[in-house]
Structures are given as C-alpha cells and as structure tokens.
Write a structure and sequence with these properties.
By secondary structure, this protein is of the alpha/beta class. The protein is built from 11 helices and 15 strands. Helix 2 runs parallel beside helix 3 and helix 7 packs across helix 8.
Length: 389
C-alpha cells in the first residue's frame, strides 16, 4: 500500500495566503502541487494526477464546482478524492459540492489539525482502495493466463495428422470472458472441433467456460456423434447448475478420409461454410437450444462433405453483433459478404481478416462482447497418423 508521505496533494485556491497556510501545515507530511485557479488545476491534474485535491469554490474563471465536475469526467482523476475548502457555509452550497462529486467539505476558517486529519483519512482510504484494485487486477491477469492456456494455440500436430489448416483467436471484452473454442484428436479418423459462448461475462462466465470446455474434451473422446456429445454435455451442465448459467455450443466431427463433417448446434451462431470457388453459405439451418437449462434434451444433426480447399468458420456473437459508433450492427449479411473475400486464404488469414473487418466496421466503438473465431480449412483428404495426445 502506498505510503502517505508519497501521496501528492493538489492545493487549489486563488488566495495565496490560504495556499501558504495549507503548504505550511502539510509540507512535512505529503508531496504538494499548487494552483491559483481552476484552469491551472486541471492542467496540473492532467499532467500528474494527484492522490487528493483540496479545492476552493469561489475563484475567477472556472469555479470549484466546475473543476470538480471536470475532474470527475476525466478517467485519470475520476476516482481521486476531492475535499472542498470554502467560505460558503450554506447547506445548499455543501449539497451542490457533494452533488458534483466531492468526498468531503470543510468551511473556512478552518483548523489546520482538522484539515490534516481529514487529509490523512481520505488518503488512507484511497491507498487502501488502490491496493485492493491492484490485487484484483493481478488476480484477473492470472485468471486470463489460465483461461487462455486452456485454449489450443499450436495446431501443427493436428494439421499434419488430419490434413487441415486451423486459425483461431479469442479476445475477451473484459480481462476474462465466457467464449471458448477447442479441438480434439478423438482418433486416427476423427477430429472434433467446438465453439461456445457462456451467458454473462467476467469471472463467473470464465469459470463456467472452464467447466464446459473440460467436459467437452472428455466426452469427445468417448462419443462419436456430435449430437450425443451435446446431449451428454447438456446433462452434465444442467445437473449441477445453481447459478442458472447456460452456454451456446456448436460441435463438429470431421472425418478426413471421407471429408465427412457432422455438426450439431445448441443455440449457437450458425457456422459459415466457405466452399472453394463458391459463395459462402450457412452450414446449418437451425440454432437449437442452449446447454444448461434442462437435462434430457435432444439435438439435431447436419452432415456435409468438405472438399479440398473448403473452409468452415465458427464464431461467437461478438462478431456478428459488433456495433459501430452509430449503433449499427455488423450482422449476418455483412459476415457472409466479408467471408467471401477469404475463400482462397489460409485458416489463420481467414480469422485474422474477419477480425480486421469487424474492427474496421466498429471504428473505435468499445467491444461489447467477447470475440472468438475458429476456422478449419481442408488441405488434403486423408490423414497420416494420429497426433500425440
């Protein structure tokens, strides 16, 4: 936790005599910055955000109320404690001070001992809050590393064994998220791939995601049919789900020797089939029901044949439901249109290219949802050997 002697206090008052009193009383305990008017105070705070602001109200130019309001609007100083030191002692003046964002209000003339006590109290509270936030941020960074470590990034063994090309990426909207993707070498003639999106965001969604992806990998090695994988996964998630969370999930089983691809969908975005030399189209018709609500659900199966050069694009709704500053949605039609530009590209180029187009469409608008993309492209129609587990 930050030492109080290292904390910087910004003193703002147009009367030099008042600043002299405050400097004399606080200089031995804290670092100080001085401003004689509101404009100067905002400039100093922007260059070097203080840990506390002692702020007069009646000043030429910007008054203290306006300075406080602007400090609260700036991300760098939004949570810096502010104490008004003012000769205005009416209740309405104090009320307005708290309404614009002040943490404390002390009227002039003041006792220096009281000022020092309040300054220490506010600085201690800020130092504690900062320490807690840093601890949370550190734990979230670790959670993100664990989450990202559970997702495959190196597909070299699978690509050699099954004659395919993979591209994948995950960009959570927060430090951690609920989107997931995975691949599984279920046998020498069977490759399983899946993608999902857990309800909600943050740590609860990431924990549910870890459970879903772990179960999916285990079930994929035991069960051949994707619709049965989803049925078993749904039963497991629904049986012990006190939080009522759910996950949309798409599962595919690819047999490279024949090019046969079986798909089953549990409420997830429809994957895009990108045939070599043809226009993109949806790989499945129906969405199905998300996993985790009720046990005993059944899921529909769709079968396709992938030929050399064909690609399959799996994605989460952070792609199709991205928004730009005008609140326009990226949408399914635009996704199909943009996918056509990557018909002859590698799988990594497909995922990277689509993300670039989504980013260009968003034009700086904040990412509102997690984004995951997984692309599979067929390079050859037979497999050489099963990769090492």
């Amino acid at each position: 936790m930050k030492n109080l002697s290292d904390c910087r206090v910004l003193l703002v008052d147009d009367a030099k005599a008042n600043l002299d009193i405050l400097v004399e009383g606080l200089k031995s305990d804290h670092k100080l910055s001085l401003a004689l008017n509101g404009e100067m105070a905002l400039q100093i705070a922007a260059r070097n955000p203080p840990d506390l602001v002692l702020l007069d109200i009646v000043m030429p130019g910007l008054d203290g109320y306006e300075v406080c309001r602007r400090l609260r609007q700036s991300p760098a100083t939004a949570e810096v404690p502010i104490m008004f030191l003012s000769s205005l002692e009416e209740v309405q003046n104090k009320t307005r001070g708290f309404e614009v964002g002040a943490n404390d209000y002390l009227t002039k003339p003041f006792e220096m001992l009281e000022v020092k006590a309040r300054v220490r109290s506010l600085l201690k509270a800020k130092a504690y809050n900062d320490a807690v936030k840093e601890q949370i941020a550190s734990e979230l960074r670790i959670c993100r590393e664990i989450q990202m470590g559970m997702l495959p990034h190196d597909f070299a063994d699978l690509e050699r064994a099954y004659g395919v090309d993979f591209g994948a990426l995950l960009e959570p909207a927060r430090e951690v998220g609920g989107d997931l993707y995975g691949t599984c070498a279920a046998g020498p003639d069977r490759l399983v791939l899946f993608i999902g999106d857990v309800s909600g965001k943050g740590i609860p969604a990431s924990m549910f995601m870890v459970r879903a992806i772990s179960l999916a990998r285990l079930l994929a090695r035991e069960i051949v049919e994707p619709e049965r994988i989803l049925a078993r996964l749904n039963d497991e998630l629904a049986t012990d789900n006190p939080s009522g969370m759910f996950v949309t999930f798409l599962c595919g089983v690819f047999e490279p020797a024949s090019g046969r691809l079986a798909l089953a969908n549990a409420g997830h975005c429809r994957p895009v089939l990108l045939p070599a030399g043809a226009a993109p189209r949806w790989a499945v018709k129906n969405l199905g029901t998300a996993l985790g609500f009720d046990s005993g659900l059944e899921f529909e199966r769709t079968e396709l044949t992938l030929h050399q050069g064909d690609a399959l694009i799996l994605y989460t709704d952070g792609v199709s439901e991205a928004f730009n500053p005008e609140e326009e949605c990226y949408g399914n039609d635009r996704l199909l249109h943009d996918a056509a530009h990557f018909a002859d590209h590698s799988a990594p180029d497909i995922t990277a290219g689509l993300l670039q187009r989504v980013r260009a469409f968003s034009n700086g608008a904040p990412q509102s949802d997690d984004i995951a993309l997984l692309a599979l492209r067929v390079n050859k129609t037979n497999c050489a050997k099963e990769p090492q587990a």
